[in-house]
Amino acid sequence: MRIGLASILRAIIPGCAFAIVAAGQTTDPVDAIKSFSDFQQIDLSRVLNGEILSQRGSLMNFPNGISAQTCYAMAVSAEEAAKQLQLWDPSPHPELKVFAFHGLHTPCQPADFQLLDFRSNQSPIRWLLDKTIATSPGRSELNLTREETRKLAHCVPKPAELQKVSECWVSLLMARASAFQQKGLDGTMPYEVGGETVSPADQLRKMLLEQIAISHEFLPILKGIGLLGRESTPSLTPFYYWTMFDADWHATISLGAVYLVTVGDHFQLADLEYYVNANYYTSATLYEVWPVQDQGKPAALVWRGDFFAAPTLRFTKGTERIAYGALMLQDIKKEIHCMQETAKSR
Q1: What is the 3-state secondary structure (H, E, C) of 305-332?
Q2: Which among 97, 122, 151, 338 could bridge 246 via Cys, Cβ 3.0 to 4.6 Å?
Q3: Range of the domain at 279
Q4: Closest CA to 203 of 313, 44, 94, 315
Q5: CATH no. for residue 35?
Q6: What is the pLDDT of residue 234?
Q7: Rounded CA separation 284/288 (Å)
Q8: Total structural domains in the chain?
Q9: Are the CB atoms for 71 and 37 separated by under 8 Å?
Q10: Looking at residue 231, what is its pLDDT?
Q11: Which residues make beta-bridge pairs with 243?
């Protein structure tokens, strides 16, 4: 039967002290990953040779959610791999279809968003421009609060001036990023679309709370973020960023934060998208990075879990869900290959 969220929390949180103590002990990386993940067989030699292991996540009771797991190696030390994953910039890789990527200062500044530009004939960017112009004080197809919808509609002139459209979006993104930098997940504003109110933070929690073994493994970082447990403000300082990329032929702007923590002899990271302007609600990518040896040289064994929430998923079942999972893994593997090549070139 379905376990309530409160029951899952009670099952996870009491084990927190054990999880942190045990993490300080030297553990075989392969055994550690097998203990909480869907990978029951991991041939380390094949992974070190470049193979990327992958698994579609099991179906969730949470209707908007889908997940996937991968396991791979990077040709740098675990510490260096963790640093690279936290600061990863996908924009130099054209196959990843990223229009812009930029880190944010703390506090964020308008100059951080100078790469946001609607002066393009590319159809995904034209799509976002059209949806922005079509926004009226009481209606938008984008992920906004009612107040943001009203402000965006009044901000964008008719006919639209492209520089002004960019400025309107910068103002909106600045407000969301500033709230997150000040309050963490408690500062995430909901989306109010089609008469429904959606909290990105709640979407993340519901997905992760269905993954009991994974949530238990990642308690050190998830509690520090304030995503699980009772901490209302984050105790970890992340790398903040914004990005614009092509998602299903739609230009999608997101705000994210990547957290990094040392746990014993390895590292944990959590990359959270706390705002996405369209197409889906939010995502979380968790990494556990372990030190290993590859022919006498330091290397990193990485487990990655991706959790993705989108409104369209609630209407998919069976083979359609399987197809979504396969496409998700295809994109994840493409990104991992780029990360591996970047690590080799440094």
Answers
A1: EEEEECHHHHHCCHHHHHHHHHHHHHHH
A2: 97
A3: 5-116+200-345
A4: 313
A5: 3.30.530.20
A6: 55
A7: 13
A8: 1
A9: yes
A10: 55
A11: 101, 254
